[in-house]
Protein 1
Amino acid sequence: MSWQPELEELARRQAMAEAMGGPDKVRRQHEGGRLTVRERIGAMLDPGTFHEVGAIAGKGEYGPDGRLAGFTPSNCVMGRGLVDGRPVVIVGDDFTVRGGSADATIREKPIMAERMAADLRLPIIRIIEGSGGGGSVKTIETTGRANLPGGVGGTWLYHHTGDNLSRVPVVGLGLGSVAGLGAARLAATHFSVMTKETSAMFVAGPPVVNALGNNLSKAELGGWEIQTRSGAVDHAVETEEEAFAAARRFLSYLPGNVWELPQRLPCKDDPNRSDESWLSVIPRDLRKPYRMRPIIEGLMDRGSVFEVGRYFGRSVITCLARLSGRPVAVLAGDPMFYAGSWTADACAKVVRFVDLAETFHLPVVYLMDCPGFMIGLEAEQRATIRWGVRAMAAVNQSTVPWCTVILRNAFGVAGVVHQPASRYSVRYAWPSARWGSLPLEGGIEAAYRAEIDAAEDPQAKLAEIEARLQQLRSPLRTAEAFWVEEIIDPRQTRRLLCEFAGLAERVLEPGLRAHGMRP
């Protein structure tokens, strides 16, 4: 006797599940400019590699004969697959089934996806649309009760949502309206992406917020500009295909989990490559800014720079890159914004990025140009100094190899935060570097007020004092006291950074760190 009838019934149920919310709901998804969850998973993974888990989980409707008459699949699709040949876990919300809300959720599915990632030590990609399995007011009626947030069993999803950050790479793709638990799952990632025209993210959407007397559209409340500038989301792209490409590229810099080391790729870019423009890229006019990104692009392997969080904390640039094929985490000051001063947002950005490097064993390269913490009333209202010392703690607590190149400014308490204080790190300075407790500009008038006021020509006296002090602040004088180890020809920088990456590779150690990364 064959079990063929049961296999045919299994195939029928699988076909029902693959139909998702039905043709009308699928059509509506496409008309909104969005792919279905199954199309997204197929585009995210290497072709033909998706192994679905729990495909026929859902709610069946049975006729008088006891046979299945109708089927509503769970609005969570999950399983395993490959990204660039590397195994990952992937879990996605099906918005065609009850808008991704709790009414159609089997909560064990997203929990199992998170557990699978943790216990098999695999990266997890969350494709999020709707509430991500979160609650709805209607849930009270459909279940006959109100759910206590978390509750028995539910706490596991919240546990893994945060705990996986210290174990495996976590990527979130917000590809529609994302609210509530879905917003939490998108924010609790190492890298998050939104689509500009078709996605939004909020704790509660416009219907709830506008009931309180507001009149906001989705974009005004939680569009990509709001969320990338607030730091809640890392990246925004035009299309879903670009979101998948960004996720693949981000994962390429990281190991599969914290018990592995980042993968070195073949590299044809000469480690000794130089560029004459580096000799003059820093203006002699201290008040004149310059563009840092071309310097980063030039120093790193060609085509390897991948910026993260461009629109948040903009006086600091954070990106992943490679040196002789080895992944590194790059911090850099951006003098185009606040002259490179560290704002509260910039400090928060540094904390999160250093934690990412520490979690996944990425050596840090810091191209420094920081005149200090941002000052003024707004800076005090934003508790900039508290965020600044948090950044200091993150740098000092890190254990990954660290290399700093001081390009121009290093002043004040923020200037201290350019290398770990308790261990050896490699440090270089360009001839354009300058440092001190505070910049001479503005400080001279305070320190020499009496002498300037007593002079016959106060402006001439100010200029005389400034010229005298500028001579004394030469980095060459600092090098006499061995307070800076090496002042280098800028044209040597790439060679020295590639050497650093090779030395760092020898001492990197995989494994869990003393503290887990927080979102």
Note: Residues 4-252 form a domain with the 2-enoyl-CoA Hydratase; Chain A, domain 1 fold (CATH 3.90.226.10).
Protein 2
Amino acid sequence: MSELTEKLERIKRLLNRWSYEYYVLDQPTASDYEYDELYRQLVEIETEHPELKTDDSPTHRVGGRVLDKFEKFSHRVPLMSLDDVFSREEVFAFCDRVEEALGYKPEYVVEQKIDGLSVGVTYENGVMTVGATRGDGVVGENVTSNLKTVRSLPLGIVNENIRRIVVRGEVFMPHKAFDKLNSECEAAGQNTFANPRNAAAGSLRQLDSKITASRNLDIFVFNLQEIEGLSVEKHSESLELMKGLGFKISPDYKVCRTKEEIWDAICAIGNARAGLDYDIDGAVIKVDSLADRERLGATTHAPRWACAYKFPAERKNTRLKDIAVQVGRTGVLTPLAVLEPVFIAGSTVSKATLHNTDYIEEKDIMIGDVVTLIKAGDVIPAVIGVDENARGDGVERRKFRMPDRCPVCGGPVVQEEGEAAYRCTGIECPAKLARSLEHFVSKDAMNIDGFGTQLVAMLLDRGLISTIPDIYRLVEKREELQTTERLGEKSVSNLLAAIENSKKNDFYRLVFGLGIRNIGVKASKQLAAEFGSVEAISNATAEELLALDDFGEIMANSVVSFFEDGQTKHTLSQLAELGVNMTFTEQKKASSGVFFGKTFVLTGTLPTMTRDEAKRLIESKGGKTSDSVSKKTDYVVAGEAAGSKLTKANQLGIAVIDEETLLRMAEA
């Protein structure tokens, strides 16, 4: 070994030792200046002599090349999930099952259940070779370059006897790192992360490992998956072995001999939870003996020798200052609790969902109340009740009422019979604009080729459209479109041509594209054919609409209220000015023919015709088709595997014919 190589090895050993003392033991023996100066020497040597750089070099901690995607990795020993238990009784029942299967009482190990992302890390001949996410337990993703940036995870281990070792750990983000990351996101105008677990998962799966390196991830190693070269008999023994190899192992684990000791250890973990700088969501109970584990085996998804006790969701009381209303992409109005800020389950919460008005009434929640808050799954804040004992505190309280006008656009708000949700019906509502546009350009509606969800989002983001009619004004913004990412001159020309062609669409496509609540493609075709124009549909009464086949009160009222709204009238007048077809231009439905005045229902698979073909034949001969069998039905055309419609036809005494009979009747 050359003198330079020896120097390089000494520097790496010293830097790795200092990192272990700082990140694992939390007992640094070197100053930041000393570490940085020695690290600088390492970089200089590896830069001048790149052939000397090895996989266990500390310089890998800063991140490397950007990946196109993560490769799949198959775990030789599956990274299984655990069955959950939720009470003292269920913990004891788990122990009883284990002891009954073994025929004696084994020892157990109780550990913290770290709330992070599970990974398996492989070392061969002392060097980290692969780090992979759990995935489905059998196949994960190779994130080796990202795991190398986790400073508490050794890049190499020193034990000449160990030829290969695979450890399992939980990557997490400490609270301080999480708060710092969210502050940086807020300052940059970016979305913040909901909780440290999501932040850790997102950070570990960055294709650019330099981003991962900047996120200050950490890891606890909690299981020995494989080892070649040494024999280990107990889990607790394996934890100490891994600790000696430089791994940061499950903190404060406890070996227990009785069920009572297990429960005491779980309670101790729960009591310490609030003071930790990382999230845990429970405790893990494992049989200590590896031989006992072999005897107990596993189910298809979880070992029989371990379980996870999940802590009840943390609860806090705070004042409900107000109830705001949010409007979602589908137009649903959701009440949102505005709270006096309270720290719960690792973060400060000032808002929480209240689901709907039925929930508010059921819980008797009033503005001004002291309410009880939890984080469902330690993630989503939710109000679960009221502290009625606090209602004598002199604070004024008032009932919540859902507004009858949308707080975003001022459009009508409706609550249909049988639904808890209130919805904004305004076609121009900015809150649901993206969804309205996506529906308008979709295949069953205006069918504008090349105008998909991503393009809608991009055009909205750049301010090129803000209403449905703006689609037909894009021709005036050709130059801006051509400078838009992923849109060249040819694709812009194709898009504008497709938009122009859509102006000549069948009228029913416009009716469907408007997104009238409860009105699908078939009902849109009925409206277009029956009334013939936007003006006629707009003037239709509920009684006229109810006369249509399969139209009920909900559908009729939806149509009437939609066309009465000022936003609808404004949108339609603009579309008309822009040249969009507003009338039924197809051949009017036949007023005579062999099937005139007859209603058919199609069911089952016909021998030679599709249902659409049979439907067109019937309509061309003056008949009508319906989706449901009723007393108004004249014929049911039944094919193979006809179901409940055939049964109902027989019950009502309605004539049932086959395809051959239908064709023969059509030729008469």
Note: The first strand starts at residue 72 and ends at 74.
Protein 3
Amino acid sequence: MLNYKHLAPFLLLLFIGFPVYSQNKTIDSLETILANPKISDTTRINTIIAGMDNTIMLSKAHVAYFNQLPPVFTKGLAMPKLHPKVKRKYQFAAGVYYYNTAKKETSEGNKNAPMHFDEAIKYWKESKDYKPMALAIVGKGAYYRHIADWPNTFKYFFEALKFYESINNESGISTVNMEIGTACIAQQDWNKAIVHLKKALPYYDVPESELRKSDRHSLAVIHNNIGTSYTRLKNFTEAHNSFLKAYYYIKKNKDPQAESIILVQLAQSSSELGKLAESEDYLKRALDLCNDDISKQGVYGSAARINYKNKNYDKAAEYGELSYSLAKKNKNINSQSGITSLLYKIYKESGQYEKALKMHEANIVIKDSTNLEASKNELAQQELKYQFEKKELQQKIIQQKKVTAVELEAQKKMALETSKNTLARQQLVYDFEKKQLNQKLAQEKNVAAIKLSSEKKTAAIKLSSEKKTAVKNNWLIAVSSVFLLSLLGAYFYYRNNKQKQAITVLEKNQIKQKLLITQMNPHFIFNSIQNIRSLINNRQNDEAVNYLGKFSKLTRQILENSNQNYISLAEEVEMLENYLAIQQLLYENKFNFNIRIEESIDTESIFLPPMLAQPYIENAIKHGLSNTTENGKIDIHYYLKEEKLYFEVTDNGKGFGTDEKVSNHKSLAMTITKERLVSYTKNKDFIVQTNNVIASDGSIEGAKVAFEVPYIYES
């Protein structure tokens, strides 16, 4: 499968369709015109731009033409008192030069590209050539996409999209949505990529006979990238259909490089659908069409993935290394990330662990440099901002239309009223209002006199009442304040005591757990040292050295874990394996052991208190197998039941006797471990199950100890 995070070589090249001389003119005829020293600057500019349009974008001839523009527009813009139309022509030419320079620098990875895009935007804005200005903004976003600067990528793409939508330019809307979709693919946001790429399709919804070669190329790019996104979403049927559409359009264009890339996609989707013969045919056709490093790198990557899926690891590694070498040569970070991840899997599954580790480390370094999550968040923020501003603009337009309509209606009414006999109408209104005003003044004098007398009496009564009320209120406020302060004081006193009690209980529990682990470690170390001493006394020097080496490793594990409340199940199992290996050496291999972990358990994600199982394993060896001289068995089993983790140790020894069950089997280590289990589970009735293993004839053929292990899960 091709690494879909880099499809820049397959992106449609963007260019401006300038108003120029007839496209039928040949390069030679244009050179003849430019050779005439008497032609005007306007003619020279038009001829240079025409020459650019008659050459392949960013070819040597194309670059040679746009490099002729600076002397012309520099001289022109330096002239004083230019006519506005002439000045616009020079500004337009400056924009053309800086835009093409920036496009060339983008393809070369030159850091000056953004600065020259800004120059193009400035000149085209001054000359009021807004469509090419928007295209320069798109180009700036494409540069930042090329260097994986996602915040700036989406910032400039959405700025261009808002402009194109404001003028309802379908071509521009399609182009920007296609660019945004491609950026989403680069940052692995497949669903968003499909949404934006499909938004780019309506512009091409015309009869096929009206499609130009560039239109077919764009359709192939869009359908190819949609297929890429469906592939990453594991929807291989939709992906295959999209690649077939892309191949249909690109085949008509007779473009071997693009055709090769889409054949690679078809090979991968056929493989995923189980059509292996069809996949091999597509891949062979793609390899036959390769004529450059970028195409080869993609095909090699796909061949590696298909061979990996079919477990042909030698071929997969060969093609993968070829693809990785070309990706490094092309300095394509995204491609390197994908192919190193694949090579890690290939080498790991084929047993080449050193090479697998090398690829894993390379992949980590590459991934750390891309900051994909930040880019996704930036895309979401830009989209929210874009949607908000779009909605706000629409509301303003609607509001403006309503205000305009109301103003127009008011103007019509005003004009109608003015046309009547305004003077007569105003005279009647004046007489009526004058009479009404005189009556109102007389009434107001009488009312004012009555009101003044009433207000004086009311004010006196109100003042007396307010004085009495103020005294009562002051007493009430004082009593309430004292009561409220008492309540607050009591509440804070109670809460402070509760917090102190909780902290005391927590500290006691933590001290108790640390103390229990501290008690256990010296006990275990003492037993192990006694074993070493016994070997030395018996002059078993080689065994003693071997035992001491394993014991030192185990001691280091215990010291590292003793201060940890929880360790992973993987670490616990590794410690038990080391411990049992030591015991095997001590007991002269009179027993074998087996540690089984249920397949559904992820040992790296489950964390449990350290050294819970060791005392019970020690007891099974020392007491359970005490009468056994050979063929002893210790079977350890971790399993999940109803989302609870259980530990179980079984031996094939003499089993539990009545007396031993009461005394001997209750060792200090097991007692401490039982206390730890009670502390972790907060269950005083915690049970460690001890049972004899009964054979079919009723005899005892061993003993089994089991208990629930407290654990936490971290994904």
Note: The radius of gyration is 43 Å.
Protein 4
Amino acid sequence: MDTVYILGISAYYHDSAACLLKNGEISAAAQEERFSRRKGDSRFPLEAVKYCLEEASISIEDVDHIVFYDKPILKFDRILASYIHRAPLGVRSFVKSIPLWLKSKLWVEANVQKALGTKKDILFAEHHQSHSASAFYPSPFDEAVIVTVDGVGEWATTTIGVGSGNRLDLLKKIDFPHSLGLLYSAFTYYCGFRVNSGEYKLMGLAPYGNPVYLDLIKKELIDIADDGSYRLNMKYFDYVAGLKMINRKFEKLFGRQALGAEDEPDRFFMDIAASIQALFNEILLKIVVYAKNISGKKNLCLAGGVALNCVANGEIFREAGFSEIWIQPAAGDAGGAPGAAFYTHYSYLGNPRAVNEKSDSQKGSFLGPEYGEESIRNVLDRYDAVYRKYEDNDLFEFIADMIDNQKAVGFFQGRSEFGPRALGSRSILGDPRSPDMQRNLNLKIKFRESFRPFAPSILEEYSGEYFDEPLSSPYMLFTSFVSEKRRFPVSSGEKTFKELLAEKRSEIPAVTHVDNSARLQTVSKETNPRYHRLLEVFYEKTGCPLLINTSFNVRGEPIVNSPRDAYSCFMGSNIDVLVIENFVLLKEDQPPFRERDTWQKTLVRD
């Protein structure tokens, strides 16, 4: 059989990415931000494309099909219709937006051809087709109902579809301006966080509050039907033709102005966060139950940026009654790149689809670049770094000792993760038993808000001993609750923010959120053998089969990609130990750090 390569591309809005399929199998996938070091980079993913081609040892002329993840003409139609409908309102936004469309965003085919240096035709999939395909085709299901919820694609904001074999069929949809994703982003903005990147902060803040504004939101902002369909009251929002998510009527409704970006949320904003999260859980549960009823399918696939809301996913797991759930690890726009490629392979080209019911085809989402010993040594020597190389057995013993002694360890190994979660390949690791580790990691290493929770990585065979549900969560996309037998009693009554943060709620306080939940990652020997072995060694040493796992980056930066990124982050933060494959560096041994600005950022992998 001839080899067929399909290159999927997402770009120009946020989180640009590229993915290469070889005969329907993912060869490589990466987000542009990992190479450019610009968080959420929306520019054409040229470096990500170069990496994908390099990983397969091919050129762009060897690619059989290039496909873009949405249809710009349809999106432009929606934007024009929105401005016309709202005229004369929105003139400032119109003047700012339309020239950009006429100059570049409308001419995607020509832009892609120019960027890649090719005259090949460019295919286009619709936005929600790409999302749906990204969730269904890599899943271990032959049949499933697919729910996609995001901000907006061309017109659709929420869709229900069915996947069967190599087919995808749309059943229901909700169109712009009514959007759950944009509603959540409006509250993200209101609570002082950045839209399209701060939604997970809002989710993390919610457990500190109570949903006291839930009834007001339902009364004034949204109408919800029993089947989960909804309509927003647009008089409170400004995103259709304005420059902000909300307007003054929104702020007047709740009696407070939007929180500033550097202001710490008080009880009011904690309650606001709790209220929108409660609404979110309620609506999404109704949608997926309705999808189950009209499709008759026992399995569920989720995609779109909203599918990264681990709290809502946990509610769906517990309450919706599906046999199994699979969520695309890069559920946001980055996932549109593999989705467009998969849609082309199966729906457009009609290739048959074989399913492994025991495993998905996402390869643990370890789809990015890896680096050999020579590349790593070149980086470390260039910085005059002091390092030592260990064999695996000694390495894992050493790391476990460091973590047991309350050290924060930057852990860099194998191919980098595709998607927003660090899964043990580009991670900062710590001791979950430490009552001080959450605050120390947040403030001294990550340089971020003190309320932000950390995720536990646990040996999958022990997850039932520490958490309530028998949940498989390899991609850190569900919350679960710490088992009652692992919890400690806490005092009742009203508490300050600092008192809530300081409470020791369980045997694993550093990964137990204020509501006793945790954003769980279960680690298997099959998908990540080295990380699994490290967890085993830590368990043998301490009796604890889990570690803190947070992304290897600091606030405002993408997750590290290369050895250079790792060393720079290590030296620019309070990480105690850096492990790059089998090389170990201690912070106290290192010479003063000096950036090499003229040095090429993207290294050749060997």
Note: The domain at 175-325 is CATH 3.30.420.40 (Nucleotidyltransferase; domain 5).
